[in-house]
Amino acid sequence: MEHQADRNVNPPQAQGPHDVPQLDARGAARRRFTRAGVGAAGVILTLHSQPGMAAEQVLTCATPSGFMSIKTASHNPQNSCSNNRSHGYWKNHGSAWMSSAGTNPDAKFGDVLAARGDYAGLANYTLMQVLERPKEAKEIKEIDRNNVAMQIVTALLNARSSARAGIPSVLPEDKVVAMWDEFTLTGGYKPTGSATPWTGAEIAGYLETTFR
User: Fold this and answer.
1) Could you tell me which of 191, 186, 193, 185 has the C-alpha nearest to residue 203?
2) pTM for the predicted model, two decimal places
């Protein structure tokens, strides 16, 4: 069946050699997310920005169900990712964990998030180690090959930081924890009840689209 979104797309305009657009960080993340397999399932992923939106205005991003229904959080001003940071930020700003997110970077992963199944080996590593992946902890990279645990920790810190700042987040803490629990219990995550479960790589790719 032809998708309505396909009928509404204007034919692409020819581009000269100097007109190729450059992807920003979120655009690159969306490309990685699509390559992870969601695009092959026929899902159209798009993030809209308000026309003329100034750089200092609140950024918005899509919830998991928003991706699946081709809707975005730009239609819901309470779904904000303006306070979200990348894993690189949290990895390099350990001093901000307590002040911004009320979280100790030396807390054990298993004391904060369930370490079960294929991820049971992360239990005694610290949250910071899961982000840093130090050379002396090679097991982390072997366990978390698709970076899903790393991005879940990042999303958790962002959720807690947003809550402390009084900013409603596109992914509050209970949603982040529920995503992780469903994934580690079932091996996938359904953004909607009828959706094909996302793999770990797809979860990590989606979470990255919510980071600044």
Assistant:
1) 191
2) 0.70
